Structure to design on (927 residues):
């Protein structure tokens, strides 16, 4: 039995009970505040630079705003949306955007092909990988400017070569027919990121499965379609989604590559470039209201297309 | 201690962006500029002079700040609604009306009027009027609000490769029209200090030939669009006078000599692809009194008029009073649409999609009083605006193209294949004999010419000029000479609606535009904005011998069509298919014409 007068050491408390809990509470509160402050800064950033501009652009899309001064907004209801959806230029820009979206399958197929080559035991594999990835780390504007000189009608490398061998010069950036194919090739050249992703995906495919299939007498093509391809579908799907969204938002190349701002026969006017022009080039006539309305139309289109892609992915993407 | 440190760091981090916004300078006026090295140097010299003189006397200090040219426009637009930012900054013509419409530029009329101790009355009216703007009516009349004053203006002229001309056997002289008789008589030297005898010693074929008042003279086979081009005869004397503007035939004639599709040996002899290039139609359309936009009411009801197919009329009598506007036209002026067409005063005519007009649904023609005045010689008919424009268009169109039933000339490249940089590159690399461009390229061409070893100079832009007998080589008597016209590009000093110190800004702007400011430009080899100061210009070593062609152009050259409206989307409507399809032969001129008027007028409704 314990002696009440002489308690054992284990029963001895160094400080009072209520003192300990108050210090812990204080520490917890401080941690809470610090944690909240830490967490709140990106949240404030998101509200200020993400959510607020987004909501503002939604509001602006229902107004006429031919200035950067927000006090000049005039509510016009759905007029901006109606004007855009009935304008010829909108449909021209849709066609141009869809044309540019061809870069997505072309880039994916070429990335798969090149990545597959790079998995082979080539001598200069590392060098080739670096060279292919290099354009992706360069600035789009810089690369596009470089290509404007390559494509240039009078002094460009390609046209100098063509005229050197007696062929007529080609207006890569000046003729309606050649403009978009030239831009697609340029985007293909910049597709190094896809190659790296694809290479990683190919490396992650279980090689024992492929070996087993080969031992069972499967041909290489069968090995690819039955084992390799299903293994890389999650990466292909990721690339599809990201590249498609990127293609639907393409603007930088178009803006830099044109000499007249819109390209031959308005070929350079993609949806995003069109909205940019409405908001920032033709501010006094189209304005930020029209630009914002088109940005929401584009956003909704991207959401719908992405949702459709996710639905369809259940039929071909293999996560096992 | 930690807490204190945290507070200090937080305070510093928080206040850094505010310093950026607040403007820690003590200056009264913030002046933002951009430009090349020589431009920045002159802006700085002028600002320093202002600070030391007028500024000091009036308690104003201007703080000049250089901004990168690449994003100057976006930088200015970013600060447009901010309280901080420049009080005075540079505005190019392309942005002027856009920025006024956006409520970003401040109306400086009253502020400038309040500065009574600085005189700017001698500044070229052509450069001041382009800074006036009535937003409501979209007009730039002399009594409309004034948003700034011009700082510098770049006139345009015809750059030509003189070495190439000499190689082709062309004698290049520099004789003003009023001195030609005396020069032909051997009494005086030309602007290069050479008499006829000097030229005859060098070119014996000139002996006995009286050089007529023509920009380009061929002694045997002058070219006309109707007769066609003939390669110069072995005995033919060719004279190019860089003091007299060529007419349309003459410049085409000269260009064909350097175009391989006309002169098979051009590529081998001169290394040229084309003879001539001008990106702008202005000295064609404006020369006959036409324009691409016409006000149908006098109150800013703009209509696309480049395809107007009716003749233009120039006053060649004493004067003419317009029946619609009541305006008294003086000799040399051309009639406005409202006075030319048969429309009752105060009424508005409606454009059709052909380039013509209707009133009450009925097609209207030329007013009877106009045709009567033309018959009695008070007015003289000039080609239609459409004729002038298609003449320009044919320069770069393929020979197989169909423009108003005729093929193109293909003596110029398609403008779409050139950026500003490459077109000058094309000229100095010897691929083209003549190029219309701005005075700002003088230094570049000079440098390149020295490096590549060729001679160059400039000449006035081509003008509409009709000779009594165009097939008579020596005939220089004219039926009519159109307006001397062309385009210059001006940079203005303007102020923001939210500028903090508009009174001081107005004083600075006015001083910079005045003789005090502009004489500094002249002393440093830059064109001043006043005729009186032209003779004071100390032209640097790179200026061409005939630099007068630039300074004379300052007097009459106006702003290009990109200045007409708040943006140039209305130009894209007709120019994009024209340049990218019609000129490349993938669209017929008729197909383009069918939509051009309607589509452009539709867009114009937005302005």
């Amino acid at each position: 039995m314990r002696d009440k007068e002489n308690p054992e050491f284990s029963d001895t408390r160094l400080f009072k009970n209520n003192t300990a809990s108050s210090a812990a509470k204080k520490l917890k509160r401080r941690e809470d505040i610090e944690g909240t402050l830490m967490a709140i800064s990106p949240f404030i950033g998101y509200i200020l630079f993400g959510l607020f501009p987004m909501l503002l652009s939604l509001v602006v899309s229902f107004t006429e705003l031919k200035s950067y001064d927000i006090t000049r907004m005039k509510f016009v209801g759905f007029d901006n949306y109606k004007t855009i959806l009935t304008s010829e230029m909108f449909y021209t820009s849709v066609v141009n955007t869809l044309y540019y979206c061809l870069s997505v399958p072309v880039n994916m197929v070429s990335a798969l092909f090149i990545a597959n080559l790079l998995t082979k035991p080539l001598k200069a594999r590392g060098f080739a990988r670096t060279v292919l990835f290099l354009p992706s780390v360069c600035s789009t504007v810089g690369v596009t400017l470089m290509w404007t000189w390559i494509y240039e009608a009078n002094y460009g490398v390609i046209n100098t070569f063509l005229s050197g061998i007696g062929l007529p010069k080609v207006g890569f950036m000046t003729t309606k027919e050649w403009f978009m194919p030239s831009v697609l090739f340029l985007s293909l050249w910049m597709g190094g990121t896809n190659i790296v992703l694809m290479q990683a995906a190919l490396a992650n495919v279980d090689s024992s499965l492929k070996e087993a299939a080969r031992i069972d007498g499967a041909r290489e093509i069968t090995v690819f379609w039955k084992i390799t391809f299903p293994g890389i579908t999650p990466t292909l799907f990721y690339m599809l989604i990201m590249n498609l969204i990127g293609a639907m938002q393409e603007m930088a190349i178009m803006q830099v590559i044109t000499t007249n701002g819109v390209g031959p026969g308005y070929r350079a006017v993609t949806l995003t470039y069109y909205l940019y022009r409405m908001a920032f080039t033709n501010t006094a006539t189209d304005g930020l209201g029209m630009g914002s309305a088109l940005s929401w139309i584009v956003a909704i289109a991207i959401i719908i297309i992405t949702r459709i892609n996710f639905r369809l992915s259940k039929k071909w993407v293999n996560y096992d | 201690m930690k807490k204190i440190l945290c507070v200090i760091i937080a305070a510093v981090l928080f206040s850094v962006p505010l310093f950026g916004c607040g403007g820690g300078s003590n200056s009264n006026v913030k002046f933002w500029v951009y430009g090349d090295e020589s431009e920045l140097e002159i802006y700085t010299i002028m600002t320093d002079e202002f600070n030391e003189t007028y500024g000091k006397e009036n308690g104003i200090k201007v703080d000049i700040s250089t901004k990168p040219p690449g994003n100057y426009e976006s930088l200015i637009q970013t600060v447009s609604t901010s309280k901080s930012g420049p009080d005075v900054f540079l505005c190019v013509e392309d942005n002027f009306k856009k920025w006024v419409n956006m409520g970003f530029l401040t109306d400086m009329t009253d502020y400038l009027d309040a500065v009574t101790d600085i005189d700017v009355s001698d500044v070229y009216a052509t450069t001041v009027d382009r800074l006036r703007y009535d937003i409501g009516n979209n007009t730039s009349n002399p009594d409309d609000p004034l948003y700034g004053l011009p700082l510098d203006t770049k006139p345009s002229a015809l750059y030509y490769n003189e070495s190439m001309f000499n190689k082709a056997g062309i004698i290049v002289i520099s004789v003003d029209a009023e001195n030609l008789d005396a020069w032909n008589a051997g009494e005086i030297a030309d602007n290069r200090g050479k008499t006829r005898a000097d030229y005859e010693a060098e070119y014996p074929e000139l002996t006995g030939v009286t050089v007529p008042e023509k920009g380009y003279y061929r002694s045997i086979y002058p070219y006309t669009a109707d007769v066609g081009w003939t390669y110069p005869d072995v005995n033919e004397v060719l004279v190019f006078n860089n003091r007299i503007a060529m007419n349309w035939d003459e410049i085409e004639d000269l260009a064909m000599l350097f175009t391989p599709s006309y002169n098979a040996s051009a590529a081998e002899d001169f290394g040229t692809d084309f003879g001539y290039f001008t990106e702008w139609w202005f000295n064609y359309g404006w020369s006959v009194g036409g324009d691409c936009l016409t006000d149908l009411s006098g109150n800013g009801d703009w209509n696309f008029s480049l395809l107007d197919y009716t003749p233009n009329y120039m006053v060649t009598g004493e004067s003419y009073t317009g029946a619609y506007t009541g305006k008294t036209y003086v000799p040399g002026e051309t009639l406005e649409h409202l006075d030319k067409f048969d429309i009752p005063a105060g009424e508005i005519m409606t454009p059709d999609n052909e380039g013509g007009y209707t009133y009450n649904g009925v097609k209207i023609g030329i007013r009877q009083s106009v045709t009567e005045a033309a018959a009695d010689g008070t007015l003289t008919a000039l080609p239609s605006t459409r004729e002038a424009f298609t003449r320009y268009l044919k320069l770069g169109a393929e020979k197989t193209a169909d423009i108003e039933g005729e093929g193109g000339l293909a003596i110029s490249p398609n403008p779409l294949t050139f950026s500003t940089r490459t077109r000058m590159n094309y000229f100095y690399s010897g691929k083209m004999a003549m190029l219309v461009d701005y005075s700002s390229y003088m230094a570049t061409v000079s440098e390149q010419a020295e490096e590549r070893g060729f001679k160059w100079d400039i000449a006035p832009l081509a003008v509409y000029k009709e000779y009594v007998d165009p097939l008579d080589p020596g005939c220089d008597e004219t039926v009519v000479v159109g307006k001397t016209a062309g385009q210059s590009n001006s940079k203005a000093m303007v102020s923001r609606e939210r500028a903090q110190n508009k009174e001081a800004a107005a004083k600075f702007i006015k001083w910079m535009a005045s003789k005090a400011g502009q004489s500094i430009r002249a002393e440093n080899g830059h064109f001043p904005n006043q005729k009186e100061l032209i003779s004071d210009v100390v032209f640097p070593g790179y200026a061409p011998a005939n630099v007068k062609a630039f300074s004379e152009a300052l007097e009459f050259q106006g702003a290009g069509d990109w200045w007409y409206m708040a943006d140039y989307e209305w130009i894209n409507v007709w120019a994009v298919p024209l340049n990218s399809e019609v000129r490349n032969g993938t669209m017929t001129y008729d197909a383009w014409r069918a939509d051009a008027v309607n589509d452009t007028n539709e867009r114009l409704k937005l302005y």
Notes: Chain B is about 35% helix and 15% strand.
